[in-house]
């Protein structure tokens, strides 16, 4: 399959274990550092990304300054005591992190400052020392080691939120969406009319049709409401 360089084999495990997650994030960072892009944005493969809204957000920030844009999924900063401090000053780490399930963006300036700490596999080493997954390790490096605060952007959304609470009128302004299953077979997803349930259980196809120009050829002409989540 030809992807024009858009698909890169990380040679990492496909599991959801923290080591595999840190491995894949490490490769992402290394690839970004080799290129001349202004922003590093990470999203999971179960995210829908509203590109127009994402570009609108990034246009409001200067990539030449240090920006860590995302949304936490916890109500208070993470406190991380160490039995084996990474440095002489690492008695306790208190920091916010943007949940990877909603996506986050880092400016070129910030990733450049991260390079001595994360490049060439060092990111995996940091993740292994604190024994936490990739998104938490990103927050640890940025907030705790580099002292750059997280800028909270409420337009990023993960499967940890009650997605069915969003109304259709607010969707065009949002950046990312996700979905999950809970309480047996109940779906946590955007409640949106569009494709039939069987064809679109995540509502991502319907979301695309909602955000696409009117009359898109691949969208159904008759919108069907999903089953209650």
**Number of helical segments with 4 or more residues:** 6
Give the terminus-to-terminus CA distance: 36 Å
Largest sheet: 4 strands, mixed
The SSE order reads: HEEHEEEEHHHEEEEH
> What is the tally of beta strands?
10
Q: What is the structural class?
A: alpha+beta
Taking strands numbered 1, 2, ... along the chain, how are they ordered across the largest sheet?
A: 1-6-3-7
Question: Main traits of this protein?
Answer:
6 helices, 229 residues, 10 strands
Outline the structure in words.
- The protein is α+β, with helices and mostly antiparallel strands and 229 residues long.
- Helix content is 28%, strand content 14%.
- It has six helices and ten strands, in the order H-E-E-H-E-E-E-E-H-H-H-E-E-E-E-H.
- The chain has helices at 18-33, 51-58, 108-118, 122-130, 134-145, 204-211; strands at residues 39-42, 48-49, 68-70, 78-81, 92-95, 104-107, 151-152, 176-177, 180-182, 186-188.
- The strands form four sheets. It has a four-stranded mixed beta sheet with strand order 1-6-3-7.
- A hairpin with a 3-residue loop joins strand 9 and strand 10 (186-188).
- Helix 1 (18-33) crosses helix 3 (108-118), helix 1 (18-33) runs antiparallel to helix 4 (122-130) and helix 4 packs across helix 5 (134-145).
Blueprint of the fold:
Elements: H1 18-33, E1 39-42, E2 48-49, H2 51-58, E3 68-70, E4 78-81, E5 92-95, E6 104-107, H3 108-118, H4 122-130, H5 134-145, E7 151-152, E8 176-177, E9 180-182, E10 186-188, H6 204-211
Helix pairs in contact: 1-3, 1-4, 4-5
């Amino acid at each position: 399959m030809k992807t024009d360089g858009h698909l890169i084999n990380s040679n990492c495990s496909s599991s959801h274990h923290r080591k595999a997650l840190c491995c894949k994030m490490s490769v992402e960072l290394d690839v970004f550092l080799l290129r001349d892009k202004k922003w590093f944005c990470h999203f999971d493969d179960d995210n829908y990304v509203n590109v127009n809204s994402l570009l609108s957000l990034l246009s409001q920030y200067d990539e030449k300054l240090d920006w860590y844009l995302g949304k936490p999924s916890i109500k208070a900063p993470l406190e991380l005591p160490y039995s084996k401090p990474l440095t002489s000053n690492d008695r306790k780490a208190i920091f916010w992190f943007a949940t990877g399930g909603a996506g986050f963006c880092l400016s070129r300036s910030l990733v450049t400052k991260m390079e001595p700490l994360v490049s060439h596999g060092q990111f995996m080493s940091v993740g292994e020392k604190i024994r936490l997954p990739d998104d938490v390790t990103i927050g640890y490096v940025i907030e705790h080691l580099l002292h750059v605060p997280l800028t909270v952007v409420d337009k990023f959304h993960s499967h940890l939120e009650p997605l069915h609470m969003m109304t259709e009128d607010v969707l065009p302004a949002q950046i990312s969406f996700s979905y999950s299953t809970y309480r047996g077979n109940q779906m946590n997803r955007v409640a949106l009319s569009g494709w039939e349930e069987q064809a679109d259980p995540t509502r991502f196809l319907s979301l695309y049709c909602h955000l696409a120009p009117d009359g898109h050829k691949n969208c159904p002409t008759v919108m069907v409401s999903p089953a209650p989540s």
